Amino acid sequence: MTNLNLPPINCKITEIEGKNQIFDIIRKKNIVLTPEEWVRQHVVHLLIHQLGFSKSLIKVEGGLSYHGMAKRSDIVVFDQQAKPYLLIECKAPEVKLDRKTISQASIYNKTLDAPFVAISNGLKTYCFEMGVNGASSVQMKGFPEPPTAVKQ
């Protein structure tokens, strides 16, 4: 897999039926190791092990609906009141982060209404603080603080 501009992770990769799989510590199962999954797992580990987000408040590959169409969010962090706090859209390292990527994350966030949105391809990561109803956004220097002071 591609070296990423994210901290290295301690993960379990196994070969099952000829395919490399990575153990997802949130979903608690092996997932086929695609380039996008490689980025997603690095971001999850960063959130938990470096930034202090609670594992119990993170959902990976959650379903959502936008204009009647079923979509899947890559990572959503919830606050203590179970409200979306941070939406993260992950892409494979070879996918350029552009207006299309930001637009996709913003569309997903119209359903979730999280105050923070991030996009990452593992090489670059951008975080935004969202305005009311996603009407505006301000780019941040990094991820927001965890919604709780509890470190894991």
From TrEMBL:
Family annotation (Pfam families): HSDR_N_2
Alphabetic keyword roster: Endonuclease, Hydrolase, Nuclease
Ranges for domain Type I restriction enzyme R protein N-terminal: 35-144
Nuclease keyword on record: yes
Cited Gene3D superfamilies: 3.90.1570.30
InterPro entries registered for this protein in UniProt: HSDR_N
Highest taxon of source: Bacteria
A GO term for molecular function: endonuclease activity
Protein name, as recorded: Restriction endonuclease subunit R
Protein source organism: Arcticibacterium luteifluviistationis
Lineage: Bacteria, Pseudomonadati, Bacteroidota, Cytophagia, Cytophagales
